[in-house]
């Protein structure tokens, strides 16, 4: 309310001056419509290499620039899962990163010093038996680390989730 009054007063003063009227194409309403959304935009991507398989959601969250919002990775030939969330800040007393969807949650071991290579925080565990249920959930995946959380993220397309799960199990 206060900013609306200030804006109205500014317009009134501008109308009384000899200077040109402000460019109305850059109004606060337009800025709000064109601001970067907090909900990540993008679609889930699957990637595979000689090192393993990855599933990630690219996004433009303000504090992670162009890095993925969340990245799942299975090293080749090892039944393990690594999950990285670049926007999470390390917490010295927190050693658990949880992922889940619906009523299914799995916990991974996180390094409380953070992940210097990937940024943010990563958690790792043997390949969780419940991971297929989490990745295929229409409710979308959530991740949490201490008081920090992301999600629910957009649902992962069934074919993309299947490719990642199959690659991890092979």
Characteristic terms for this protein:
2 domains; alpha+beta; nine-stranded antiparallel beta sheet; single chain; 170 residues; 4 helices; globular; Immunoglobulin-like; 31% strand
Helix content: 10-25%
CATH topology of the largest domain: Immunoglobulin-like
| Overall 3D form | globular
CA-to-CA gap between the ends?
58 Å
Number of strands: 9
Strands of the largest sheet, in order across it?
1-2-3-4-7-6-5-8-9
SSE string, helix = H, strand = E? HHEEEEEEEHEEH
Strand content: 25-35%
CATH structural architecture of the largest domain: Sandwich
Tell me, what is the CATH class of the largest domain?
A: Mainly Beta
Number of helices: 4
- Contiguous runs where pLDDT drops below 50 for at least 5 residues: 1-40
Plain-language structure description:
It contains four helices and nine strands, in the order ααβββββββαββα. It has helices spanning 2-16, 28-34, 131-135, 158-169; strands spanning 45-49, 52-58, 68-75, 80-85, 96-101, 104-110, 121-126, 142-145, 148-150. With 170 residues, the chain is of the alpha+beta class. Strands 1-2-3-4-7-6-5-8-9 form a nine-stranded antiparallel beta sheet. The chain folds into two domains: 2-34, no CATH class; 45-169, Immunoglobulin-like, CATH 2.60.40.
List strands and helices in order, with pairings.
Blueprint: H1 2-16, H2 28-34, E1 45-49, E2 52-58, E3 68-75, E4 80-85, E5 96-101, E6 104-110, E7 121-126, H3 131-135, E8 142-145, E9 148-150, H4 158-169
Antiparallel strand pairs: 1-2, 2-3, 3-4, 4-7, 5-6, 5-8, 6-7, 8-9
